Amino acid sequence: MSIPGLGQIVAQHAASAPATRTITLHPFSEWRFQISPTSSATCRLLTGTAERDGTELAQIKTYNLTRCRSKLVSFTGATLEITGEFESENVKHYPNQADSPFVSYLNLHFLLQARRTQSGNGHGPRVMVCGPGASGKSSLAKMLIGWATRQNEQPVLATVDPRDGMLALPGTLSAAVFATVMDVEDPEGGVGVSCTPSSGPSAVPVKLPVGYYFGREKVEDDEQLWRDLVRRLGSSVRAKTGRDQGVRRGGVVIDTPAVEWKRGEVKVKSEDGEEQKEKGGGVEGLMHVIREFAVNIIIVLGSPELEAELRRQNNKTPHGEPIEIVNLDRPDGVIKQDRQHLLSSRKALIKDYFFGDSKRALSPSVQSFSFDDVVIFRAVDGKFPRAWDPISANMDKGLDLDDPTLVLERAEITEEMSHWTLAVMDASVNDPLETIRQAPVIGWVCVSDVDKDRRRLKILSPVSGRLTRPMVWGRWPEPYVNLLG
Amino acid sequence: MDDHGDEVAADFREALQDLTTNARFEIVTLTNIARENANHGLAISEVLTNHIKEAPASKTLPALYVLDSIVKNVPTPYALYFGPKLYQIFMGSYTKVDSATRRKMDEMLKTWKEPVAGSISKKPVFPLELVRPIENALLAARNAYMQQANFQSQQHLMRGRPAGPPTRDTPTPPMGRAYQPPPHGQPPYQGPPNGQYPPHGEQPYPVRSGNTANGTPNRATPPQPAPSAGPYAHYQQPPNQGPYGAPPPPGINIDKLKDDIQQLIELDRAEFAQNMHDASKQNRLKALLDLQKVVQSQNLPQEQLMIINDQVAKLAVNMRAQSQPSTSSSYPPSLPPYNTHTPTPPAVSQQFAPPPAAAPVLPQLPAVLAAALGRPASNVAPVPVAAAPPPPPRPATTGGAAPGTLSLDSILGQGALAALLAAKKPATPQQTSTPVPPPAAIPPALAALRSPPPQSMPFSPPVQQPAPAPAAAPSPLAQNPSALLAMLRQSGLLGGTPTPPVIPQAPPPDPNIITLTPASLKLPRPHLLPYLLDALGPPCSQCGRRFPTTEEGKKKKTLHMDWHFRVHQRVAEAEQRGQHRSQFVNELDWIQSHEEPDVDYNAPSGGLSPSGSSDDDNDWSGGVGGRGRNKGREEKKRYIIAPDESAAEGGVNKVCPICQEKFQSRYLEEVQDWVWMDAIMVGGGKRVFHGTCWDEVNGGSQGAGHQGAGYQGAGGLPLLGKRKADEGDGEEEVRGGIKRMMR
């Protein structure tokens, strides 16, 4: 008997039928769960209150969850009804409520809220969250934003960690104002790229980001560009807060790349556990962020050493305000993201960007362009260590690497470009290279096929139309081979 | 003739495409369309077949329910048309949907083997020789799978599947799972209850045929879950049955009806025993007993039975609704129905007090029934109803039912009409001046949608079943929302929230006691928690956002619910249109954008173009500000929202004063509204000109947009609420400035 897919689903049927469970959360308990990208689960808040990353769940409403590793926390106690397949899920109960890391987080929020109130028409707090990998930085940043939004603030969430891709594809530094509820169902906790605007309506208010394309995984891969983009992002956020009083009051929360500081040595640790030793970069990078965003509150998660080092370096913001630093315990239960999971969520993000998620199917267009119709740049190679650049072998050796204005070059279109996502920049092809390099990104396209003989390439693009903008071919995230099939 | 058939088919196809949930109303409407156009049955059946074949998995089940409904209600000719294709339709759908939907389909399939409940005909919905192959195929597939699967799951299947739990032996789909309020606020079409939806006022669930014999005693006792009472509650007859005069399949089973009533009485007695002093219960019980007498002693015509039946169904539902806590589908053993309400303030009992035509109001049962019975009787064949007083004049507030006609109200009770209205126009305050308790048949979420702000109950989480108490209560409590809230909590309808923390009315205790030190941060401050929770007001049932119960908060909430509603509507529309990810904005736009909650969000398309016309939308170059944009394109994008007729009377000219041509309205997708293209408002928004004419006359040097005061104001061009509508030079300047600033 061959009815396609039937056997498989019957299996699910068998497995999922008993899987409807009710979970009781005591106050300050967390329900932690992991759901694989291929399965899905639902969750319903029956009684009480519960929230994910600072955003409350509506009662009774069924939330569909997939592909995520997250937690729901209840401050008043709750019962949840869950169904579906989980890679793992468990309830973390704190016998003594004071042990919950959320106590500190909540207090932190109320402190920030008090600062907002005090600020009058001035600037609300600018908070930088930093710490080693897997210390819950992004979650805390999201929570602080979510709570502020609930109290009718309009804070800015900015990320300078290129790995995250907040409201953007990975490899992008971005910022957005959050004035509306975040999408609880979003695998990235409301900051995934599927929460950005599409031509259609969205049941959860979309967020409008501004993003700058870095195109690398790690800061040190092109630290100069990263610094430039942080500066651009910082000035955009400043301009925004300068213009919009609500946003000014709401302040800024900045999520940063993982930095570890131990015994006088900076280890930049990637989230997937691969260690990269670097000289000095990490803290210097944070200092740069602090200056560009005029940070006045620094939250260090689980690294007293880093706190000490930052204290040593800091005293005043550019405006002469004192900078306050606090180190909070690293919460337990933060999931170390393994390489495989990160890779699959990057791919899922790219897919979401073009095709939409389960709630919103999008129809991207596939178009064919002549090589001459498109302008694709890439970073000039050779300024960076060749070791991590697989493409460097093909580089034109005749470049004058000393020319400071030569930061980009026209990329030769080859088969290697297949399956890469290119960033479309908000600039004109005739703009100076430096302008193009630092321009905000207005979207991405994916090269689905390169036909060298006919000099044509097929491009998957969220909208159809001519590609008159310059595009930048980054070096990360990696090509997504099966995007179209 | 053929042409007409094509039209019908096309309409039907369109209607099907809009069908995204199993909303009862829509399915009933589609069924009626199919009934009326039975002569085009072949075309319709083809359309439906194709739709089921092509629909995305999420829309398959509703479409199948349409088929189910049509076949059960209009077996001739549709059963014949669908019959030969049944296997392909069913199996095709089965392979593409998820397991939950498959379960529903299994349930539906089961009902096809049996006669339509209440129908005289003892023939099954589809001949067994059509259904059997499907069952066999499913069984074979399962067996094939089980051979691979481990033994355990096999056992599970054996237990769980073909035989099914006991409840499934009834033609009723097992609805034990808690019912989720449909996102649109429409009562869902819950499963294919065999013959449940028909115009011939089927017996309400509790007394469904086959079970009558044993149903009575234990059903009435609280612990019996009676799982499907809730969903069925929403199932009412199609509103237009009467007027359409479709031949009602003969079907009221008087025995069933009697049983129904009997059960209600039992239930009521139990309650009454619990609470002897409650006059309303006493009245109700008496009313029921009277009704029983009437039904038993009279030989009522079908039509009237139908109505009685309907009322009884509602009663049953209400009682269950009350006795069921919102989230669980079983009776709490210790709580007899209604008991939850006894501690409520006297105001609540008003719901049981006299008139407002809401049918389910119990003490009035005889009167209401009489009203309902009397009317059709006068139209059709007057039948004296012994126990009933003459039909009282219908209150004027019942939604405008014309006297003498078989109105929606009289068939369905006010609730249905209101539900319809609510589905169409949420949050529009009722025009009625007298506080009419919203009909009990509306789920509170709906009631919330349509109630005027003061009584908007949105803070009550969507309760599973229509609950008369919250719906009826608001009038006396309208001025005191917090009392209402308390009441709801007390009655257990606003479940969940443990006793609300005492929220100090005074400003929060100075949170400055928190300092940015680990020690201070680690100190639990439970008294602050409410500021993130209850102090913010009750949450929206759709998204959890909280709104204070102040006047302003209520206004915002109304806006917010409107927004939800609009979005739900538009999501369905947009699905057909095809959507795409929008461009991100550039710095300038981002800086100028303003996050405004609950404003229609239009994708920021085409960068700086305020109208976001589709030209720009489809072109990556759109975002490059004013660069290289030609005049012609700009003119295309000037428009104002077309003033509505009445406004036009009041001053806005419909003719361009320069060229004396009328403005043409056209629907602009981006703004979701009718607009006058190439129109600008000049001089305080009173005079409208063609943009081109205006430019000609004024030398065309300045972009009219800069002058037109209305240009910004009229559009509500809603990118994040407020967008600067600059164009051309001015924009370049701003842009340049910002660019300079950024570097």
Automatic annotation (TrEMBL), chain A:
<dbReference type="InterPro" id="IPR032324">
    <property type="entry name" value="Clp1_N"/>
</dbReference>
<comment type="subunit">
    <text>Component of a pre-mRNA cleavage factor complex. Interacts directly with PCF11.</text>
</comment>
<dbReference type="InterPro" id="IPR045116">
    <property type="entry name" value="Clp1/Grc3"/>
</dbReference>
<dbReference type="Pfam" id="PF16573">
    <property type="entry name" value="CLP1_N"/>
</dbReference>
<feature type="domain" description="Clp1 P-loop">
    <location>
        <begin position="279"/>
        <end position="355"/>
    </location>
</feature>
<keyword id="KW-0539">Nucleus</keyword>
<dbReference type="InterPro" id="IPR038238">
    <property type="entry name" value="Clp1_C_sf"/>
</dbReference>
<feature type="domain" description="Clp1 C-terminal">
    <location>
        <begin position="362"/>
        <end position="478"/>
    </location>
</feature>
<comment type="similarity">
    <text>Belongs to the Clp1 family. Clp1 subfamily.</text>
</comment>
<dbReference type="Pfam" id="PF16575">
    <property type="entry name" value="CLP1_P"/>
</dbReference>
<dbReference type="GO" id="GO:0031124">
    <property type="term" value="P:mRNA 3'-end processing"/>
</dbReference>
<feature type="binding site">
    <location>
        <begin position="134"/>
        <end position="139"/>
    </location>
    <ligand>
        <name>ATP</name>
    </ligand>
</feature>
<comment type="function">
    <text>Polynucleotide 5'-kinase involved in rRNA processing.</text>
</comment>
<keyword id="KW-0507">mRNA processing</keyword>
<dbReference type="GO" id="GO:0006388">
    <property type="term" value="P:tRNA splicing, via endonucleolytic cleavage and ligation"/>
</dbReference>
<dbReference type="GO" id="GO:0005524">
    <property type="term" value="F:ATP binding"/>
</dbReference>
<dbReference type="InterPro" id="IPR027417">
    <property type="entry name" value="P-loop_NTPase"/>
</dbReference>
<dbReference type="InterPro" id="IPR038239">
    <property type="entry name" value="Clp1_N_sf"/>
</dbReference>
<dbReference type="InterPro" id="IPR028606">
    <property type="entry name" value="Clp1"/>
</dbReference>
<dbReference type="InterPro" id="IPR032319">
    <property type="entry name" value="CLP1_P"/>
</dbReference>
<keyword id="KW-0067">ATP-binding</keyword>
<feature type="domain" description="Clp1 N-terminal">
    <location>
        <begin position="24"/>
        <end position="118"/>
    </location>
</feature>
From TrEMBL, chain B:
<dbReference type="InterPro" id="IPR047415">
    <property type="entry name" value="Pcf11_CID"/>
</dbReference>
<feature type="domain" description="CID">
    <location>
        <begin position="4"/>
        <end position="142"/>
    </location>
</feature>
<feature type="region of interest" description="Disordered">
    <location>
        <begin position="384"/>
        <end position="407"/>
    </location>
</feature>
<feature type="compositionally biased region" description="Pro residues">
    <location>
        <begin position="180"/>
        <end position="191"/>
    </location>
</feature>
<dbReference type="Pfam" id="PF11526">
    <property type="entry name" value="Pfc11_Clp1_ID"/>
</dbReference>
<feature type="region of interest" description="Disordered">
    <location>
        <begin position="597"/>
        <end position="638"/>
    </location>
</feature>
<feature type="region of interest" description="Disordered">
    <location>
        <begin position="319"/>
        <end position="352"/>
    </location>
</feature>
<feature type="compositionally biased region" description="Low complexity">
    <location>
        <begin position="323"/>
        <end position="332"/>
    </location>
</feature>
<feature type="region of interest" description="Disordered">
    <location>
        <begin position="424"/>
        <end position="477"/>
    </location>
</feature>
<dbReference type="InterPro" id="IPR008942">
    <property type="entry name" value="ENTH_VHS"/>
</dbReference>
<dbReference type="GO" id="GO:0006369">
    <property type="term" value="P:termination of RNA polymerase II transcription"/>
</dbReference>
<feature type="compositionally biased region" description="Pro residues">
    <location>
        <begin position="451"/>
        <end position="473"/>
    </location>
</feature>
<feature type="compositionally biased region" description="Polar residues">
    <location>
        <begin position="209"/>
        <end position="219"/>
    </location>
</feature>
<feature type="compositionally biased region" description="Low complexity">
    <location>
        <begin position="396"/>
        <end position="405"/>
    </location>
</feature>
<dbReference type="Pfam" id="PF21936">
    <property type="entry name" value="Pcf11_C"/>
</dbReference>
<feature type="region of interest" description="Disordered">
    <location>
        <begin position="721"/>
        <end position="743"/>
    </location>
</feature>
<dbReference type="GO" id="GO:0005849">
    <property type="term" value="C:mRNA cleavage factor complex"/>
</dbReference>
<protein>
    <submittedName>
        <fullName>PCF11 component of pre-mRNA 3'-end processing factor CF I</fullName>
    </submittedName>
</protein>
<dbReference type="GO" id="GO:0005737">
    <property type="term" value="C:cytoplasm"/>
</dbReference>
<feature type="region of interest" description="Disordered">
    <location>
        <begin position="154"/>
        <end position="252"/>
    </location>
</feature>
<dbReference type="InterPro" id="IPR045154">
    <property type="entry name" value="PCF11-like"/>
</dbReference>
<dbReference type="InterPro" id="IPR006569">
    <property type="entry name" value="CID_dom"/>
</dbReference>
